[in-house]
Each structure stands twice: as structure tokens, then as C-alpha cells.
Amino acid sequence: MSNIYGKLPFRVAVGALALTALVFGILSLGRRDRSRPDSFAKPSESDSCRALFAPSEDLEEDDLRAIASASSSLDVAMFAFTDRRIARAIEQAATRGVHVRIYRDPRQYGDERERAIRNNTQPLMDELASYKGIELRVKRGSESMHLKAYCVDGRLLRTGSANWSENGEMLQDNDVYLITIKTAVDDFERDFGVIWGRSDNTIR
Length: 204
What we know:
Elements: H1 2-6, H2 10-29, E1 49-54, H3 59-68, E2 73-78, H4 84-95, E3 99-104, H5 106-118, H6 124-129, E4 134-138, E5 148-152, E6 156-160, H7 166-171, E7 174-179, H8 182-196, E8 202-203
Parallel strand pairs: 2-3, 3-4
Antiparallel strand pairs: 1-7, 2-5, 4-8, 5-6, 6-7
């Protein structure tokens, strides 16, 4: 091969060498290095991720079942929360001895509270915070707390686009994922611990 390149002008030879290296590089992409461990751990048979889509599916019913299954902890980060059936399920979980932590967006929390007062009804978050075993914290600052997620007993993660409102759960185009993959659950719990522990949170 060196004899072939030796007969070509310098610039042409350099270009031919570069083209050869590129071709070998592309061909090697399909070959896996068996000496290196996989980047991602193989999921166990119990790991799962179930996708649900509203309005063709009733997301509220799945959330109610998940909350009803809680036996020790329920960590919630919810942007909008006006669904009273969900609130009743959380109150029942707290009555069973489940430790509930709810983290809210400041604007949504404030707007919901003001609407309830204008309508002469008790704000939903005030009611929840009055239950033994339910803690409520609200983020401060100008940036949104935009999560719509919760974790049951450190084993089941629910995340997606659906807020806890009747429209969000049943009428709007939304998705929800119910995940038992341990790494995903652990990552959420780790992040939830960080946002829950912010020093400037408002504690209700």
C-alpha cells in the first residue's frame, strides 16, 4: 500500500490515507468490544415501565391504585394539584401510617389557594397539611417546580405530563409512565431529597 501512495502527489496521498482511515472506522462501528463491560446494567425480570395515555385511558384510576398500594412512604412533586379524589386517597394513606411528603410549585400553589378562598372552600393543600403524617413544602423563586411525579415505597415511580387535575388525568392529551426500574426510582428519590431539602423552601 505504501508503494501505491508513493507514486501519488503528496496532497492526493494524504487524502487517500484519510479516506482509508474513515472507511476502516465506519466498518469498526459494527464490531463490539467484548472486553469492555456494558454501559447499562441488564434489567431484572421484575423491572418494568408501563405507558398510559389520556384521554383514551383513565390516568386517575391508575394513580388511585398506586397510592392505595403505599404502605410506608409517598413522595410527591406535583405542579398542579386540584383533584379531590387523589387528595382523599392520600389522606387515607396517611391514616394507614404512610409518611407523605408533597412538594409544590409556588405559583400554582398560590393560585389554587386563592381560587378556593374566593369560592368559600377550604384550600386543598391546607386540608392535606392538617393530616398527621403529611408534610407540605413549597418551592421559592421565579423558576417553576414543573414535575408531575411521585414515588411509592421507594419501589414505584410515576412520571409524565399529567397534573393531578380532573382535566389532566382524564380529558387532556397526556402521558404517564409507571416505572419499577430500580435505577430510575433511586434517581428520582435522590433528586426529590435535594429539592425537598432546599434551605429556602416554604414549609406549610
